Amino acid sequence: MKRDYFSQDGRSERRHGEHRMGSCMALIDGRFLIWLAQQGATGASGETVNRQGLLGLLSQALSQAGLDVDLRRIYWYSDRSDGQVMDDQIVRLVQAHNADGGASLLRSLGHDLQKLAEHHACDHVLLASDDERCLPLIDEAQLRGLSVHLLCDESARNMPHMARTDPGWARLLAQGDRRVVIHAQTLAELLQGKSPNGVGLSAEDVEALRQSMQEVVTAWWSEEPEDLREDLRDALQVSRGIPQEVDRQLLLRMRQRLSRALSLPEKKMLRETLRAVVSGPVAPAEPALVGLPPDSED
Fold first, then answer.
1. Number of independent structural domains in the chain
2. Can you give the pLDDT at residue 199?
3. Mean pLDDT score of the chain, rounded to an integer?
4. E strands of 48-88, at which residues?
5. Torsion of CA 208, 211, 213, 217, to 10 degrees
6. 171 located within any domain
7. pTM of the entire structure?
């Protein structure tokens, strides 16, 4: 029965067996992320990142890796304060890399990874670093039951080549439970000060996704009995929360439509689409359903 939720192409079938869920924290070496953005991205320059869209970009990359996880928080490690205050992001100030060779960063990041594993604070960690000294830290966290995934660019798709050209990073990536690929050009937009859309997609792709969501929600809404529609309208007037059963139904329909899980920002977009459809104008034909004119129900 579960096969019906996914398309029958080979990639989706492979993802079916690999799909994982849970909560996630991201530990991001800011210096490494800036370097990663500069690789193969035309015009990428600068030493700061617009972190406003970072959570959305990482959530999208995790989703594409078959990880339907709730990215709860980003820990951002940097040797300078960028003055940005972002929800769900914690800044860890460390020594400059050229001052201590990254030792301060390694201590701070390693301490946080250890605590997350010790306290079972999450199911997954997304780590962005190319420092091979992280290997024993990752191994220890994994032995405690934590899944650790490594952020990388498209070059990681060819691991044999990387093993020859950058063996240290190749060993680090091989230790990860999964390699989460993010496109350098997308990261470059952060360096250029652009404000991403929050889902890690181009404006055209976001519009296409929004249209797909509108179609899925509208189709589902048209199938619902009128009494259940009224119940949902009333529920949303009282609370912004969406009933879990409704949420599950729509997420399953979108997963079937896209042949992948939605990232956290995409889930938020889907829920906003539902609220817009539910709160839309009531169809004037409703009285005809009971055979009465609008003023004669009494």
1. 2
2. 54
3. 81
4. 67-78
5. -170
6. yes
7. 0.64
